[in-house]
Write a structure and sequence with these properties.
By secondary structure, this protein is α/β, with parallel strands linked by helices. About 50% of the residues lie in helices and about 10% in strands. It has a single domain (about 5-225), classed as Aldolase class I (TIM Barrel), CATH 3.20.20.70.
């Protein structure tokens, strides 16, 4: 479940934040049919922070039914309060999740001890494996290698999802994390534009935004990198380059809603106050998607 390609789809909702079951079911079915290694539901791409507890549970139930029982389903349970995160963990388990993704969402800046105890509390209420979600861009908390190492030795903590390195090279960061964690502890990365590099350096998984809507080319890149075929992996990564540029310029969250509309998968705006990308960016996106389509992947 924590190896290979984990695809994170958006969560289509109406303007009131009500999950649209047919649209979400379609996205999840496409991912299961593509045979991604896992589906990451209610991650940042899945707009977990914009949804009520009730809608988050309903999204899991919809996804579980659409994916089938054999497809691994990792569900985000990030929340500001620890009691809210523990409630979401219980909901996810009851609704059919196979694993949990926990981000320490914060308003008041958190200390490492506070985050550690947050994970302890959630791990105590569930038998499902927990993934450490290191996403400082949204949570405003960055995990140190020492904290990841400390957490990795807790019962139930099964993997870590890392952002692109802020300073040091990826190989150096991986070496530090492996030194701090148990042998074989899965270390995966987000940041789609560095997926090829991360996998070629030996990262366990690509937690992918783009795979949530474009699983075919994302799987091709993943499998090439897993096989050690650097030339093919880098060639496929270059085909994504116009899309990566749009992700960096406008934020992948916004761009994914536009991709869904371009591909006629669903038509919805991001939850307010987030606004859709501008018309000029949509034209750039259409050209980027056409370039990918011409590869036949």
């Amino acid at each position: 479940m924590f190896q290979g390609l984990s695809a994170f789809p958006p969560t289509p909702t109406d303007e009131h934040g009500i999950v649209q079951p047919e649209a979400l079911g379609l996205l999840v079915e496409r991912l299961a049919q593509a045979k991604v290694d896992s589906i990451g539901l209610l991650g940042s791409t899945g707009a977990y922070a914009f949804l009520t507890r009730e809608e988050r549970r309903r999204a899991i139930e919809i996804a579980r039914e659409a994916a089938g029982q054999d497809q691994s389903l990792i569900v985000g349970i990030g929340a500001l309060r620890t009691d809210a995160a523990t409630a979401l963990a219980r909901d996810a388990a009851e609704a059919g999740a196979d694993g949990l993704l926990l981000a320490p969402v914060s308003y008041t800046p958190l200390t490492e001890e506070e985050v550690f105890q947050h994970f302890v509390a959630v791990a105590e209420v569930t038998d499902l494996p927990l993934v450490i979600y290191n996403n400082p861009a949204t949570t405003k908390f960055s995990f140190s290698p020492a904290l990841i190492g400390r957490l990795s030795h807790l019962q139930g903590i099964a993997a870590v999802k890392m952002p692109p390195p802020a300073q040091d090279g990826l190989s150096d960061e991986l070496a530090r994390l492996r030194a701090a964690t148990p042998p074989g502890f899965p270390i995966g990365y987000s940041g789609d534009w560095m997926a090829a590099e991360a996998l070629l350096c030996g990262a366990s998984a690509w937690y992918s935004v783009v795979a949530g809507l474009l699983p075919g080319p994302a799987l091709a890149l993943t499998r090439a990198a897993q096989a050690g075929d650097a030339e093919r992996a880098q060639r496929l990564d270059a085909m994504f380059a116009p899309l990566w540029a749009l992700f960096k310029a406008h934020g992948s969250f916004r761009v994914m809603y536009a991709i869904a509309a371009e591909l006629d998968l669903f038509h919805a705006e991001p939850p307010r106050p987030v606004l859709p990308i501008a018309a000029q960016a949509r034209d750039e996106l259409a050209r980027a998607l056409q370039g990918l389509a011409e590869t036949g992947l």
